[in-house]
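Quick start: read one record
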Amino acid sequence: MLRAMSIPRPTARQLKRLTGAAALTLAMIAASCGGGGSEEGGGGGDSSSTGLADCPFDALESADGPIEINMWHTEIGLNLKALEKIVTRYEESQDKVRIKLQFQGTYEEQLKKFEEASGDPSSLPDIVSPDDTVTQYMADSGTVIPAQSCIDADPEAAEIYDDMVPIVDAAYSIEDVLWPGAFAAAGAVTFINEDHFVAAGLDPVADQPKTLAELRDVSEKIKAANIPNLEAPLVMRIEAWPLEFLTSGANQPVVNNDNGRSGLATESQYANDVTLEILEFLKGMVDDGLLKYTDNADYIAPYLGMAMQTSSMLIETSGAIRTVDGAIQGTLTPEQIGAEAGVDLSGFKFPTLNITVGELPGLTEPGRGQMGGGAWYLVDTGDDTTMAAAWDFMKYFNQTEQQVTWAVDGSSFPVRMSATESPELQEYWANTQSGQWMALAYKGFTTLDPDFPGPVIGPYREFRLEVKNGVESMVFEDQEPADAMASVDAAFQEALGEYEKDVAG
């Protein structure tokens, strides 16, 4: 079992800024470190009336430029180009702030670097952009200022953040406190080989599976069609997030305290009837030759399975839409895709494919799950001016125009409702294949239940690793679903206990 990551101990200044979002937890951190610091926070963002840390949002007004902001990121491909475009536009709009984009590798690599740097504020970035699993960890670390502090203090922020897609605010909030200030949002889709559907007597649109029962029925019909070279109708990487999406879609918590939303998650609730039903479904699909799992380390394997038509359906994130479309349209070469995926695809030729997308099948209804992606956090570096500048860029990034660019030029969803009214975005959604796919995925995204946005877990990555191990034990070791669930539950409970101890100091 992987031990829960350690919580960086906050500096005196950071202790001064700690918020009430996880009041008890953060109080314990402060106590373990000898109490709060004496240094007063600067700026005009006093949030004492709400219990939140000060946000120095107005410190930029009296600052002399240029102020350099270091932003750590993990973006590649189209998202990186879109981000660079927005940065250029921002720098041209004013003369005080300059943005230095610093690529940090994968989410995991970036988080490790951030954890190592957290003891020395001078080595921290001004903005860090980990994935969606680290909300609790970032809140407990004492190294970031919650976006809620700045939203409450900054009059210009209200219009922006009141217009957010409800699931975004819900997913990244703990006890009604929003932690990150900007987002790379994604959902889930099912890629479908239209020719395989037709060969099995199915309509690629009307017969798209909406539930797990329908997914199995469609898979059985495709298998019975004896399509040449078909290995399994459905292909997926061994990952935890599809299971999470299904449990969230069924309003089933996996931890206590309202799935971690009303207090620190300390008890596993992974062992339940919904989890068992999902695991039994997956095991049955594998046993009957309807589902082929690929190792998560071989990221591109399921895509190649679709490309070589050894599989008919792939459940993946919406972030893959632009890449899949680019391969089909010929705007992305195998070499380009292989370079980003870290594999050699030289000499490979993409065959002619007729692909469409459908929603994520649910237990009883389609599309229900939770959001994924990444988030940007305002780092407490101790410098009011740079923090104000970083917040200013976050606000700019969330402007409707920039969100449209983020969606049209990149591969992320816009998180502003107003962005959907943009003629540019409407044209993209209506007149391009990738846009039509993204529009369908976005529809599912905007209808996710904000009252059940998924769990907030301190040792989230340990949880995902244990779920992955559980799936592997079923697939490769023929372990019974109930036994796999029990093993995951026990290991997860241990990780929660370790995290609670670490937080308490």
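Residues 1-49 have pLDDT under 50 and may be disordered.
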